TrEMBL record:
Swiss-Prot/TrEMBL catalytic activity: 3',3'-c-di-GMP + H2O = 5'-phosphoguanylyl(3'->5')guanosine + H(+)
EAL domain sequence ranges: 23-273
GO biological process: regulation of single-species biofilm formation
GO molecular function, one term: cyclic-guanylate-specific phosphodiesterase activity
Native organism: Shewanella oneidensis (strain ATCC 700550 / JCM 31522 / CIP 106686 / LMG 19005 / NCIMB 14063 / MR-1)
Keyword Oxidoreductase: no
Shown segment, full-protein numbering: 242 to 515 of 515
Record-given protein name: cyclic-guanylate-specific phosphodiesterase
Keyword hit for Hydrolase: yes
């Protein structure tokens, strides 16, 4: 009678151990992947709703794994975050973008947005690191922008450190606004420049009026608090028209461009800059 239970137990323990192992070996792969430069960046343009011209890009990481092929960030970023590898990975990403953009010439004030996890701000020498980055990007005419992902709660200490970055002239955006842990009271104590409205709200445009009221409320909040609104995941002209009619300043999404490798981006920018 006990045999099926015993088998189920052994199976469950086995599954648990296998999962644990696969997570840790993926973490090992991330570590060696950074050393072997298997990570690269693609860049998605962000256009101004005034004139449709590109004012900057968001840098999005990709992993060319030697066995698994191209791996999407949704899979490895959470593992990097859990295994203390997100800081070295993010530092690698900054260096990679610096190297990439030193090969392009962009309009002055061109912005590159980086996704930075809150853990990054725990580093003790974070201000010196960002001062170096700010200067290095300034030499190639680029203004760095930090998109703060809020999968974890932002602590008061992190907010203080992030606020200090704005004194270095680094732009700060809250990413995926409306989906994470950011509370309205946090927005009151924490000044930032941009608020990126998550795609799930953009998807409600043209749907029933109750869900799209949430979007309208977020846009109003941006206007009232003087944040510049950026809409992400804009896929249709109807969505773009609606957002423009509501004075959303910046738009990002497949309607305008998909994330591109540097050489493709360079051609795209030639056709879409001032
Ligand atoms: P995110 O910051 O919200 O990035 C936007 C994601 O939406 C990107 O997916 C982008 O390719 C996708 N996207 C953009 N426009 C459209 C659209 O019109 N339709 C649809 N369906 N999707 C669109 P991606 O590149 O797979 O990145 C997924 C997430 O992984 C990012 O979400 C971000 O949270 C994280 N991530 C990506 N790169 C980095 C990085 O360098 N560092 C960190 N810490 N996280 C990153
Ligand atoms: Ca982002
Ligand atoms: Ca986002
Ligand atoms: Ca998103």
């Amino acid at each position: 009678i006990l045999l099926p239970f015993l088998l189920a137990f052994v199976w469950l323990v086995g599954l648990h151990l296998w999962r644990k192992k696969s997570r840790s070996s993926l973490a090992d792969d991330i570590k060696s992947g950074i050393e072997n430069q298997e990570f690269f960046l693609v860049y998605q343009p962000i256009v101004s709703s005034d004139d449709g011209k590109a004012k900057g890009v968001e840098a999005l990481v990709r992993w060319q794994h030697p066995q698994m092929g191209l791996v999407r960030p949704d899979l490895f970023i959470p593992i990097a975050e859990q295994s203390q590898l997100i800081v070295p990975l993010t530092n690698y990403i900054f260096e990679r973008a610096l190297a990439d953009f030193s090969k392009l010439s962009v309009d002055s004030g061109f912005r590159i947005g980086f996704n930075v996890a809150p853990e990054h701000f725990i580093q003790s020498d974070i201000e010196a690191k960002f001062r170096y980055l700010k200067d290095a990007f300034a030499r190639i005419g680029v203004q760095p922008l930090i998109e703060i992902t809020e999968r974890q709660l932002l602590t008061a200490d992190m907010c203080e450190r992030i606020t200090a970055l704005r004194e270095l002239d680094i732009l700060v955006a809250i990413d995926d606004f409306g989906t994470g842990q950011t509370t309205l009271s946090l927005l009151q104590t924490f000044t930032l420049d941009y608020l990126k409205i998550d795609k799930c709200f953009i998807d409600t445009i043209g749907q029933d009026s109750v869900t799209s009221h949430v979007l309208d409320t977020i846009i109003e909040l941006c206007h009232k608090m003087n944040y510049v609104a950026v809409a992400e995941g804009v896929e249709t002209q109807q969505q773009a028209d609606y957002l423009i009619s509501r004075d959303v300043h910046f738009l990002q999404g497949y309607l305008f461009a998909k994330p591109m490798k540097l050489d493709e981006l360079s051609h795209w920018l030639e056709a879409h800059s001032e």
